Structure formats: structure tokens, C-alpha cells
Backbone:
């Protein structure tokens, strides 16, 4: 069986100007990065009078080690739409180097449903993440320099909230002490690093609608507090112009292609367990402007990426999804039903029945909370039996939602035509899209709404520190913002061990902060960390390059 990278390397890429021309992108908007990828100038959005296409969101059940295939399904669906004669465009996130070299691997799809050049997309790509990291770290450097040069803003070094970042899983950098070595080397203080995709600059970058909006958002970023407990911003430090200079080219969406030549925007990449988990607003809007169907995804399960896509991104950007695809595998549902990974190849209707409530809760949320037409895409494996598939079909039908078999990994767009037909049907239905909470609720009430309506929990518990932080954020005028919950991706709850569809649990908020530039309040729960570590056997150990420069081991 061929690996993903072997399949991708066999594909003969079409020149990127041909891909651009296929959706009407004039060459004046195109900035090629070699023959196979390009940036598209954001001025296209204001100068193109074409009506927006339908927006289709792809999300998934709660992830398991058995895998779900959300990105693969997103790409295969877009290819499938083209197979049935529809003009589709994909919008995806860029992969972070941390997971690429860690345990998760890349994020360019799989099998015969991939975006290419797969190696470039997974490794550096067009340098966007480096630009975001540089802007983040410039702000950190200017902050510490301000304190070193006399601290006219009266910043309390013990109340600094801004961290440096690096796009790598490096637990050693979570907590550091810097500024050592004497007076000329800075002011000693406790510090730390986030992974780049957890930086607020990444969130700002992905939610910005223009360069001017980017600047306004960057200026609002809070880096710490004064001795008088007043917030200090990037604007106060006069860092905004220089940060924008680093980001202005990165802000232009990246255009690539699928294995079947479908245009694909791959741009931005915040994690969904610690940030809002969606590609850039500019890329999504560009996909909608150029395609009759824009197919995008949100990270991890629907309780994380989809919730944030719908409650945060759609709210800010004025987006209205026409349909939602919820990806599931029978293997993963059996894991939620208690079956070990090594035993997933055997038919087990009892375990499947126990695991199905996880899927059904996600489906119910999309249908009954967000009120959007939806379909379940069952990513088929050879070991799945007809009896197991029939059980999934039956349970979804009881909720009034169809389930469709998807074979895009093995067959590309051909394996996604049935899913494409159902998506087209759903997009023609009226929907009463609604958010899961109103902005005029308090921060605590918004969190209660998410936990009860989306997670299926009993309520929220706040540590004394979190309660104090929440009260102060409300006093500072941030109470009217959406909330972004940082929690484990492996459970509806904040406890990764609670699989399936648990209920009766309380989500404990341990700390709260504001991402004022991004425009949301962040609630950190459980043991969530903003700097992951590498596993015992990192994926990096299997990656190699031969004497001709051909990469192997990347997945």
C-alpha cells in the first residue's frame, strides 16, 4: 500500500497560474511562490463583484487514536463536488510544525484526497508561521526593552502576560527565567513560550478582514498590567506598525491544488483546543467569492472547532453556513464504546451502540442548537461491516439526518460524489442558523450555555483565581466578548478519560485571560497547555531526505 507522501509525489502538479485561472483569478492578483503555490492579493475581495457561494463546514466526532479523516473528507468532498459538475473551492488551515514532527503528523489530507505540494504545505510552506512568530517575538522584545530602558509605562514585570513563541513542540520552554547575566542583559523575570499556533497574533491574523483591521486588532493586544493593575497594550508600546510590516505579505491567502486540480486556499492555523481552530477569514471569503461551494473545516470535534467557527468566526465575519458535514468512523465510535485500538477490526455492534451517542450529540448540536442542515460522512474502512453501517444509518435517521458512506481516501473525488450530492441538496434547504449564546450574557452565563447546550454537562465551576480574573475582565469592559474555551479535544468534558457522551459533569475553569486583539475571552480548563511536548517516539525520527532531495516518512 502506498503512503500518503508517495501518492502525493506521483502527482504531476499543474502550474499554479492554471489553477488560478480555473476560478477566474486574474494574474494581477497572483504572487507565485515557484510553480505550484502562490499568494493571492486580498484586494481581489473588494474588486470582484461576483456573489458569494455556499459555505460548507466539515467537522467531526470527538477524536480518538483510531482517526476520523476530517481534512481528507473536506478535500474529497470538494473534489466530489467538481465530479458532479459544481464549482468548488477548498479553504484549510496550514499545518503546524509541532504536530508534523510530533505524534499527529501533517494536515494535508490523505490517500487520494490531498492538497499538494504536500511536503511544502507541511514544512515551512510560504513562511506565514515564521512571520507570525517574528511579529509575536518582536512584541516580546519591545516589551522587555521598554522595561529595561526605564519602564515609563510602569509595567509590573510580575504581571506580564505576553509570551514568546516557537512553532515546535518543546516542553522545555514552557517555563523559563530570562534576563539573567547582569544589568546590560535585561531585567530578570519568569517567562515562557507558547507554540506559534497558540499565539494571539495567530488568532488576530486569522480573524482580520484587511490590513487596517489587522492593525486595529494588533493594537488592542494586552501584554501585561501596570503596578496599578491597568492593562498595557501593543499600541502603548508602539509596536503595531512594525508587527504589521512583518505580517502584510503573510496575510495574503495561499493558493494550492488538490490531487484532482481543485483550487485550495491553505492559510492560517490556530489549534482548536487552545484557540479558535479555523483558517483565516480572508481565505474563507476568497473561497466563497470564487466558488459556488466553499468547503472548509474546523479543528478537532464539533464541540471545539465547529463551536468556535460558528460562535466566534461566523459572528465576527458575518458568515452563514449552508450545511455542515460531521465526519465519523465506525472504528472511532467503537473506541468510544470501550473497544481497544487493537481490536477494532472485528464487528462489534454492542460497542458501536455504546459509542454512537458521541456522534449523535454532535449531530443534535448542529441540528438543534445551531439549526443548520447536516449530514454524517462515514469514512469507510475495509473492516467495517454492513451491519455496523446499517446501525449508524438507523440512529442518524432517528434524528432526521442522513448518513453517507465516504471512500475519498481510496478513491478521491469519485468516492465523495454521494456525499457531494447530499451536501448540494442540504445547501438548498432553508436554515435558521443561530449561535449557542447571546453576546449580552455575562462571561459566566456564556460558559454555562456552551457547557450545557454543546458539551452536555451540568455546569461550570471556577477556581478562585479564575473567578477573580473573570470579574476583573468584566470591570475592564471585556464582558461582552465571545468566549473561547481551551480544553481537551478527547472528550466533551474537561477530562480526557471521559469518552462517548458523558453527562452530569462540571467543567472547571482554572484561569481566564482576554485576547483583546482577537476579540474574545479565553477560559482555560483541565490540564490544557499552550506549549505541547513531543511523544516518546516523535514522528521526526522517521522523516528523512535522500541525495536527490526527496523526502520520506512524512505523513
Residues:
Amino acid at each position: 500500500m502506498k503512503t500518503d507522501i508517495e501518492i502525493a509525489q506521483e502527482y504531476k502538479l499543474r502550474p499554479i497560474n492554471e489553477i488560478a485561472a480555473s476560478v477566474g483569478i486574474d494574474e494581477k492578483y497572483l504572487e507565485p511562490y515557484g510553480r505550484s503555490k502562490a499568494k493571492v492579493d486580498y484586494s481581489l475581495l473588494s474588486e470582484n463583484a461576483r456573489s458569494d457561494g455556499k459555505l460548507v463546514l466539515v467537522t467531526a466526532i470527538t477524536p480518538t487514536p483510531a482517526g476520523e479523516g476530517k481534512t481528507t473528507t473536506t478535500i474529497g468532498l470538494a473534489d466530489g463536488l467538481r465530479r458532479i459538475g459544481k464549482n468548488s473551492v477548498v479553504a484549510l488551515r496550514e499545518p503546524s510544525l509541532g504536530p508534523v514532527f510530533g505524534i499527529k503528523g501533517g494536515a494535508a489530507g490523505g490517500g487520494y484526497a490531498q492538497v499538494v505540494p504536500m511536503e511544502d504545505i507541511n514544512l515551512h510552506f510560504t513562511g506565514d508561521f515564521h512571520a507570525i512568530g517574528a511579529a509575536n517575538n518582536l512584541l516580546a522584545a519591545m516589551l522587555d526593552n521598554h522595561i529595561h530602558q526605564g519602564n515609563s509605562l510602569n509595567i509590573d514585570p510580575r504581571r506580564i502576560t505576553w509570551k514568546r513563541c516557537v512553532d515546535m513542540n518543546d516542553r522545555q520552554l514552557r517555563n523559563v527565567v530570562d534576563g539573567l547575566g547582569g544589568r546590560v542583559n535585561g531585567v530578570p523575570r519568569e517567562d515562557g513560550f507558547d507554540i506559534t499556533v497558540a499565539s494571539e497574533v495567530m488568532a488576530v491574523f486569522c480573524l482580520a478582514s484587511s490590513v487596517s483591521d489587522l492593525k486595529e486588532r494588533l493594537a488592542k493586544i494586552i501584554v501585561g498590567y501596570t503596578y496599578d493593575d491597568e492593562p498595557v497594550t501593543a499600541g502603548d508600546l508602539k509596536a503595531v506598525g512594525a508587527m504589521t510590516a512583518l505580517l502584510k505579505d503573510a496575510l495574503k491567502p495561499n493558493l494550492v491544488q488538490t490531487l484532482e486540480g481543485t483550487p485550495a486556499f491553505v492559510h492560517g492555523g490556530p489549534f482548536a483546543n487552545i484557540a479558535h481552530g479555523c483558517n483565516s477569514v480572508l481565505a474563507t471569503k476568497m473561497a466563497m467569492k470564487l466558488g459556488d461551494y466553499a468547503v472548509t473545516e474546523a479543528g478537532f470535534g464539533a464541540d471545539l472547532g465547529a463551536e468556535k467557527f460558528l460562535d466566534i468566526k461566523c459572528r465576527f465575519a458575518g458568515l452563514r453556513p449552508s450545511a455542515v458535514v460531521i465526519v465519523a468512523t465506525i472504528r472511532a465510535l467503537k473506541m468510544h464504546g470501550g473497544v481497544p485500538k487493537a481490536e477494532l477490526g472485528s464487528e462489534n455492534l454492542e460497542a458501536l451502540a455504546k459509542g454512537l451517542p458521541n456522534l449523535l450529540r454532535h449531530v443534535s448540536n448542529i441540528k438543534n442548537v445551531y439549526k443548520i442542515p447536516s449530514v454524517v460522512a462515514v469514512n469507510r474502512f475495509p473492516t467495517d461491516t454492513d451491519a455496523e453501517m446499517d446501525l449508524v444509518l438507523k440512529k442518524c435517521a432517528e434524528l432526521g439526518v442522513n448518513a453517507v458512506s465516504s471512500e475519498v481516501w481510496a478513491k478521491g473525488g469519485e468516492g465523495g460524489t454521494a456525499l457531494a450530492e447530499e451536501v448540494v441538496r442540504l445547501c438548498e434547504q432553508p436554515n435558521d442558523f443561530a449561535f449557542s449564546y447571546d453576546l449580552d450574557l455575562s462571561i459566566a452565563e456564556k460558559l454555562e450555555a456552551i457547557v450545557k447546550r454543546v458539551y452536555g454537562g451540568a455546569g461550570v465551576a471556577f477556581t478562585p483565581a479564575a473567578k477573580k480574573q473573570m470579574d476583573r475582565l468584566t470591570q475592564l469592559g471585556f464582558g461582552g466578548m465571545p468566549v473561547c474555551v481551551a480544553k481537551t479535544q478527547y472528550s466533551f468534558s474537561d477530562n480526557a478519560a471521559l469518552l462517548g457522551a458523558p453527562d452530569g459533569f462540571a467543567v472547571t475553569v482554572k484561569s481566564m485571560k482576554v485576547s483583546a486583539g482577537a476579540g474574545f475571552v479565553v477560559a482555560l480548563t483541565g490540564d490544557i497547555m499552550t506549549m505541547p511536548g513531543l511523544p516518546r517516539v516523535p514522528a521526526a525520527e522517521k522523516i528523512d531526505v535522500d541525495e536527490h532531495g526527496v523526502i520520506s516518512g512524512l505523513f
